Amino acid sequence: MPQNKNFQKRITILDGCFASRTGSYTLEKLMNTIQEKLEIPVSRKTIQNDIKYIKETIEDNNYQTIDFSKNPVFIPKLFDGKKSIFKYADENLALGNQLLSKSDQEQLEETLAILSRYRNREDFFWLDELFPRIEEAFNLVHEDYSGLISYQSNRDYSGQSWVGKLYNVLLCKKVVEIEYKAFQSDESVVRKIHPYHLKQYNDRWFLFGLEEVLTEEGVGLERISNLALDRIESVTETLLDIKEDTINWGDFFDEMIGVSKPYEGKSIQVKLKFSKNRIPYILTKPIHGASQRLDPSDAKKRTIIINVIPNRELFQLLLSFGKDVKVIEPIEIASHMKKIAKKMKKQYKKSTKQ
User: Fold this and answer.
1) pLDDT tens across 93-103, in order?
2) How many beta carbons lie within 10 A of that of residue 77, not counting itself?
């Protein structure tokens, strides 16, 4: 029989109804139950086909041990008025109590094989616990593809535990009160946030949202703030609805490298010249894909131009290239890099004297 994306969900719900000790489910009540739980319309014919599928599946799985001509799947002649009631004659016949059919086992093994590819991703760590339980419960052996691909991850990252919680907060669209302790602070503070977006950068997670703050002059101000998840100590949901999120987050991050967006920061043109050995890597893995292009005035094709908001991640990235990059313009960024280089040189001079 054809199976749409809600088929297995319907079968699970119906199986529970048929096994219920206290419930009495007519065809109409089964239709209403499916519609309430899945929030989708369902036809009488669909439910009848689902019942037929369940009956045939149970009979196929148990025909060697049960004579269904004498012991039918459903209690016969059970009515609510003139309407038939569907209830298992034996609760042990419920699909949830059955051994996996061959087709179900093949589907489950195939699903596990696909999921195994993602076991090394930090957002799929829960698979490490889930796999052994499923394999033991259903006596399965699947081909493990995890050795074919590896993902960059940091399993010891303390903010990971907040990802699931905050994801659900985003779905609920409620204001949250977050107890937050910045690295530079001795005490935590409670911040009221309208949560909008979660972003991962450099093996850390950040929550972006609207925050109401007071300026030094005591004037109320709304701004977009980002909170590192590893600095969060508690999250409390409120009953307040968030203010509508009107931000295009793709465009928001296209203006910068990383996640730090200075208040009222403006995008500027930055021209960078790379060494002969480094430029191939920059061209194949752009440092800012949204705006990066070659400088047409450089015949050697070693100078690129990007348009970004200057922030600490930009300077961290430039420093990571060491002597392989030179800031051509603007002069303000070039001067800042020069100051950093002088401080580094001074530090290394001190270390060589010790």
Assistant:
1) 888 776 666 67
2) 6
Cβ neighbours of residue 298 under 8 Å, at least 6 residues apart?
273
Rounded CA separation 130/111 (Å):
13
pLDDT digits (tens, 9 = 90+) for 269-297: 999 999 999 999 999 999 998 899 999 99
Kindly state the tokens that stand for 188: 């935590």
Q: Do both 288 and 337 map to the same domain?
A: yes
Domain that holds residue 143: 103-148
On whether the pTM is more than 0.70, the answer is no
- Give the total number of structural domains in the chain: 4
Contact 147, 175 (CB under 8 A): no
Same domain, 272 and 345: yes
Evaluate whether 315 touches 309 at the Cβ level (below 8 Å). Answer: no
Q: What is the pLDDT of residues 98-146, one digit of tens each?
A: 666 667 777 777 777 777 776 666 566 667 667 766 766 666 655 555 5
